[in-house]
Amino acid sequence: MDEQGALTEAVYYILLSLDSPLHGYGIMQRAKAMSGGRVALGAGTLYGALNTLCARGWIEPAASDARRKEYQLTQAGRAALRAEVRRLGELYQNGIHILGGKDDAQA
Questions:
Q1: Mean pLDDT, residues 8-18
Q2: Could you give the CA distance from residue 41 to residue 25 in angstroms, rounded to a whole number?
Q3: pLDDT in tens, 49-107
């Protein structure tokens, strides 16, 4: 994926979660739900990632009340997410090809 590199699973789910503005706890809940419980973000991991993603310009603070800071995906973040989905699709297709074209998940 160009110079971006592969996203960690946590970052991938954080970005997916921010399709609409959310606060930290909402991001944790959405990531956990989307991953079937596999991705359980701790507060330290989440807030460290949010700071990094803000610095990269992939997310930004959204208008919110003073009690909860909400974040939203930027156009650059959406582009990074699309690039990752393409990369994952290529990985998936290559795996299916090597395994003889059989998709066990759909069989």
A1: 96
A2: 9
A3: 999 999 999 999 998 666 778 999 999 999 999 999 999 999 999 999 999 876 665 54
Helix or strand holding residue 22 (H, E):
strand 22-23
Question: At a CB cut-off of 8 Å and minimum separation 6, what does 25 contact?
Answer: none
CA distance 77 to 5: 14
Cα within 13 Å of Cα(90), Cβ side: 8
| Cβ-contact 61, 24 below 8 angstroms | no
Instruction: Give domain 9-98's CATH number out of 1.10.10.10, 3.40.309.10, 3.30.1440.10, 3.30.70.100.
Output: 1.10.10.10
